[in-house]
Structure prediction request, 429 residues.
Amino acid sequence: MVAHKTVCLRRLSGGERSLEVCFNRLLGNPRVTPAQVIESWSDQTGAAVQGRHVLALQDTSEIKFSTTEDARRGLGKIKKGNAFGLLLHPMLAVDGDSGICLGLVSGQVWNRKDVVKVPHNKRALADKESRRWIETAQAAKTKLAGAAMITVIGDREEDFYAAWAHIPAGNMHLLTRLMHDHALAGGGTLRQAVSLEPMKDRQAMELRERTGRKPRCAKLAIRFGQVALRRPNMVEKDLPQSITVNFVEVVEEKPPKGAEAVHWLLLTTHKIETVIQAWQIVGWYKQRWVIEQFFRIMKSQGLRIEDSQIQTAQRLEKLVALAAKAAAIIIQLVQARNGRDRQPAALAFSPAEIAALAAINKTLQGKTALQMNPHPQKSLAWAAWIIAKLGGWNGYKSSKPPGPITFHHGLEYFRAFAQGWDFRNLCIP
Prediction:
């Protein structure tokens, strides 16, 4: 999937009917389960996180597949209206210092069966979909055991009391954006307490491009403090009466005309005693864009998982789990272009494909040091340099770094070359 940049079984098989049949049998085999595929996500991640501060990013994405009234493909509803598909909840490990993606950790893929009629506040945690945030983080405690520190980062949906009670432990912290205006143990609400704190610093921050927003430099004001959340009225009565957390609020006081002002109210279990520590929390939260990029690669800007024509929900669940691994590797491949983090090319390519890359590398290198592949042979950065060159990048440091489109073109070219490379020793009588 990585080398071919597709999840289409026919394209993956290169027109070889027997291989396409093999792929279908794999997805149809009842002994191959989505849970087994997800368990293998972290095979190489555990070694990559050793001794690092890991940002464990988790989020949920709805994956919509086309259906008709007569052919729902066994898929449940995922959105309001006539939308059917699966839900994917992955966790990505990212280096806290460099922002490099270290691989997938854990997660879930599921298909909604029935509409739940019991009100949310009357259901136990075990009966709520929100338990996925806690279960994924708990699985990460084992898989990321070698990390020096873990910061689990989620968006607003992860801001619920049970998550604050269950996730933080030992070297694992939680950082999320406020969804609920929590009641406080001492009376009042969180937002009221935040409003009483004065702004303590102002800095300019570069904002990435996102849907509905162009990249720009925003001037942000910041304040921070500590509060004790009061346990809400809930089914679980065994949770602590209160939980102490720290907050950081950043506000764009004068946004450009027509632009939506930046306003983040973040909660965390990390200690915040200085302005530097407060801005560090904001910097870590900004790394959430990596998981947003991951979902884009899964969908319209990469593997186009939602275009799959596989006809059963059971097979689609396995395909989504496999595609998630491929999307994470593609992110690593794109990031590897700068050579900041050494990972093996075997993370993304088979031995035969690495041999093909080595053959191509000889033709792409020039005679001067500036025209040589600067990365260790058979490293992911070495492979990324080759793929980027195939995609049209000139290789000079003064040039704009290659982006996802360049890598897409390079992977397409490489796919054709690798198929031909496989036939190099074919003897035709």
In short: The two ends are 33 Å apart (CA to CA). The first strand starts at residue 53 and ends at 58. The mean pLDDT is 89. The chain has 13 helices and eleven strands.
